[in-house]
Structure formats: structure tokens, C-alpha cells
From TrEMBL:
All residue ranges annotated as the Glutaredoxin domain in the record: 18-82
Native organism: Sphingomonas oleivorans
Name under which the protein is recorded: Glutaredoxin
Residues that, per the record, bind [2Fe-2S] cluster: C31
Family matches, as PROSITE patterns: GLUTAREDOXIN_2
UniProt keywords, alphabetically: 2Fe-2S, Iron, Iron-sulfur, Metal-binding, Redox-active center
Length: 111
């Protein structure tokens, strides 16, 4: 694992309020889990950035080490690792994801 990839991941995580590491793009997710994560964020009306891990093998491997989490997608809010698709879904259904976003001061469309 290169220090360069870790530095790029850290910079990306710090620079975006809401960041989703995913397979594909929001318009063309390349796996069902990434598609579900995008759908949740879109439904909540949150502005977010994405990084397509399929475009960069170093990032694809590096993000798993960075978060110590084995799967993609991965959601970060204000630099904090939140979890993957299953955790996002559980938090969303319990109303915890919207609470977290509100607590962190993340603006939402129509909120």
C-alpha cells in the first residue's frame, strides 16, 4: 500500500463534507451496494462527492486499509467514517443517518 494513495485518500476525506467511495458513479453505479448508498443520499437531499474506486486500484485497496473496513462503498461525513451500504441502510431506516447529518450541520435540499 503506497503512502501516496493514503495521502490522497486522507486529503479527499478532509476536503468533502460528505464523501462516498463507491464502484462507478452516481449516474452509473457498478454494484448494487453502491447504487443503494447513492439512493439513500439522494433521498436525503444531501450534496455529496464521490470517488470511483474502479478508476484507481491504489485507492480501491487503500481505502480498505484507511478505514480498516473490507468493503466498498464507504461513507464519510466531515472526515468521520460512517460505514458501508448495510450500515447506511440500517441508520437510514432508524432515522439515525438524518440525525447524524443534521448534527454535523450538513445542508439538505428542502430541509
Amino acid at each position: 500500500m503506497s503512502d501516496d494513495a493514503q495521502a490522497r485518500i486522507a486529503a479527499a476525506v478532509k476536503s468533502a463534507e460528505v464523501l462516498l467511495f463507491m464502484k462507478g458513479t452516481p449516474l452509473f453505479p457498478q454494484c448494487g451496494f453502491s447504487s443503494r448508498a447513492v439512493a439513500i443520499l439522494d433521498h436525503l437531499g444531501v450534496e455529496y462527492q464521490t470517488i470511483d474506486v474502479l478508476q484507481d486500484q491504489a485507492i480501491r485497496q487503500g481505502i480498505k486499509e484507511y478505514s480498516d473496513w473490507p468493503t466498498i462503498p464507504q461513507l464519510y461525513v466531515k472526515g468521520e467514517f460512517i460505514g458501508g451500504s448495510d450500515i447506511m441502510m440500517e441508520m437510514y431506516e432508524a432515522g439515525e443517518l438524518i440525525e447524524l447529518l443534521d448534527q454535523k450541520g450538513i445542508a439538505r435540499a428542502g430541509a
